[in-house]
Amino acid sequence: MTMKRTSGPGARGEAAWEVLVDGGLTGGRGRGRALQGALREAVRTGRLGAGTQLPSSRELAADLHVSRGLVTDAYAQLTAEGYLTSRQGAGTWVAQVRGEQDPRPAPVFAPDDRGGPDDLRPGLPDLALFPRAAWSAAHRRVMTALPHRALGYPDPRGLPELRAALAALLARRRGVAAEPDQVVVTSGVAQAHTLVGLVLHARGQRTTAVEDPGSPEHTALLAATGLAAVPVPVDRQGLSVAALAASGARSAVVTPCHQFPSGVAYSPARRAALADWARGCGGVVVEDDYDGDFRYDRQPVGALQGLAPGHVVYTGSASKSLAPGLRLGWMVGPQDLVAEAAERKRTMDLGHSVTEQAALADFLLSGGYDRHLRRCQRLYRARRDALVAALAEHAPGAEVSGIAAGLHAIVTLPARFGPEPRFLAAAAGAGVAVRPLSYYRAAPGAQDGDDGLVRLVVGYAHLPPEGVARAVRLLVGHPVRPARRLSGEAREAGR
């Protein structure tokens, strides 16, 4: 079978990559497993590199003399496991496998392709809510007031006024114990984690524990700094501290306020145990507070950092609260680690944009940030409620969890919607982008789907309520109904 690349050597059909699959195995189920295994191994070994286009399911089925459904199931399973990626009408491609060091670009979703009308993948706020007028006003004020000397090379830790404003904000909203000289302004949480990883590597560490299930980004960022990620299981109370202690790692990356992706909030006992572990072994906990400002049933859970300020590095950003394109983040940590991180940042980029830092400081101090968060909180809650209502109407028996906070939920569909690979293939065919919970496990698919249930991580914040309802109807196979007039309250929730 012929595989095509769309970029790099061999683009536009100038060369072809071939993978031989033994189609002579007996038994339909055995042949399906053989096909999945052969394709999986070809991706792992690099014989099918990132960016390779696979033949259509019809073409491959004809080549191998098997049913098209068998090929469709294989593609869907490997897509769920993260080996393949697909786009409706554009085909199926080999993805950039986690940890793969392939320098060739993979045809991943472009940034502007996320958050489409039927995109239920998590991780994106509603960019239309960005407070353009208030942000522009902040820019005008700071550009008028900034002295000429402020436009020189900045302090790599960040503008003093922004660090002071962040320290006050984080103490008030998140319970973070910090002085301004413990704050470093970063280019998002990604750079904060990179800086911490470089410091830990320089201190002799070679492994760091990560949550399982957890964010693939954590593993990728750690790998870039020379640290190997050690998956540690997460249960209903949070990261297993016993498993963490047994792992031998002396650092861990966690999301304790709203665990990604399960939605679990670490229990008080588990938070205390994690802090005790760090103090006992002299370890470092990197806290990723990626969406801690959004909680809908009560006040947000305070940051873990407040329990052990000498051993926890708190990281956050404006990516979910404002927009990821601003590339504004921060880290708060022990002074010795912060000093090392700031020196790394100095050699990395000579500091962050002065005007953007000054605008954020103004936005915080003027109260604009708090007003914006209150508006987002109201609208995102309406969208969460729309998701729950749509599932109750169109997928009776579905369970929804992790909805007390954040911008996504875990949806467990009854067995009648499975098996999971076929469901995901049908969702893709209907034009709905969605990710299974298995995508976020260290061994994708190994712990999900055996009971026939379909477990999904569903993002809802970037869609208006009627968009959430439409995507759910498409997802579970119901026809789309004509749009109806919205009430004034619903229009506000959808803006």
Sum this structure up briefly:
The protein is of the alpha+beta class and 495 residues long.
Explain how this protein is built:
There is one protein chain. This protein has 495 residues and is α+β, with helices and mostly antiparallel strands. The strands form 3 sheets. An 8-stranded mixed sheet has the order 6-13-12-11-10-7-8-9, with helices on both faces. Strands 2-1-3-5-4 form a 5-stranded antiparallel sheet, with helices on one face. The protein starts with a strand and ends with a helix.
Radius of gyration: 24 Å
Principal-axes geometry comes out as globular
Mean pLDDT: 85
**Could you give a short account of the major beta sheet?**
8 strands, mixed
Query: Helix proportion of residues, in percent?
Result: 25-40%
Which regions have little confidence, pLDDT < 50, spanning 5+ residues?
1-28, 98-112, 479-495
